[in-house]
Design brief:
The chain has 6 helices and 12 strands. The chain has 236 residues and is of the alpha/beta class.
Length: 236
């Protein structure tokens, strides 16, 4: 019989992308040293484009010099996947998990992230599916609603998933989302007739779906982990 497993969830609100990278790096080091339990960051970002380690700059369709004029930033990361947009009204989850402790390999981990988003979409009557061959993320028909890009270091995960609730879709016009041409991007708002609750409730529902898929026995919510964010900010 396995030991009960706990997931600690940090509700962070809107966080600058670089600050979130620093926080993930810190937590990954702590998880590797077994000083913290599995941890999940629940947040959203200001308008931000991110590129994965393959550096597919050609999928950014706007000159980098013009990004400031549309209120967006560009950051290069060490995650898998292609170019992605993050912004307001998009739910982002960054799991800092030990795959060894939960008995997952890399592929089964990504599939569990997909299932988490699919289960969440079903709450609102939206039938989502995993991507087909050469398609990453989660889709509604031929429209992408959720993105996945992960990094795994010594069995510890970071980066994660982004689910479109009701973002400004104009930002997606400036990229080839996840490097897949001729495919649309969609959102929960576009796909459901249901009335959407507050962003806080939506984030909590998505977290609950992930905790269920990963079979956590207990979820501990940290409402204001502001001290750590303030420490990171002071180091900038």
């Amino acid at each position: 019989m396995r030991s009960p497993r706990t997931l600690e969830v940090w509700k962070l609100g809107t966080v600058n992308y670089l600050k979130s990278l620093k926080l993930q790096d810190k937590l990954v080091s702590e998880r590797k040293a077994n000083r913290i339990t599995d941890t999940l960051l629940s947040l959203q970002h200001p308008p931000t484009y991110t590129l994965g380690k393959r550096r597919t700059d050609h999928n950014l369709l706007i000159p980098e010099a013009e990004l400031k004029s549309i209120g967006a930033e560009l950051h290069y990361t060490q995650r898998g996947g292609d170019i992605t947009f993050h912004g307001p009204r998009q739910a982002v989850l960054y799991p800092i998990l030990s795959l060894r402790s939960i008995g997952f390999g890399a592929r089964s981990y990504v599939e569990a992230l997909e299932r988490s988003m699919i289960e969440f979409a079903s709450i609102y009557g939206v039938k989502a599916r995993p991507g087909n061959k050469c398609e990453t993320g989660v889709w509604v028909g031929d429209r992408k609603i959720g993105a996945i890009g992960v990094r795994i270091s010594s069995g510890i995960t970071c980066h994660g998933l982004a689910f479109n609730i009701d973002p400004d879709m104009k930002y997606f016009e400036h990229i080839v989302p996840c490097g897949i041409a001729d495919k649309e991007v969609t959102s929960l708002r576009r796909e459901t007739d249901a009335q959407l609750p507050s962003e806080e409730v939506i984030h909590e529902q998505l977290v609950t779906c992930l905790a269920k898929v990963f079979s956590y026995d207990d979820v501990v919510w940290k409402e204001e982990p502001s001290a750590i964010l303030d420490t990171l900010e002071n180091k900038d």
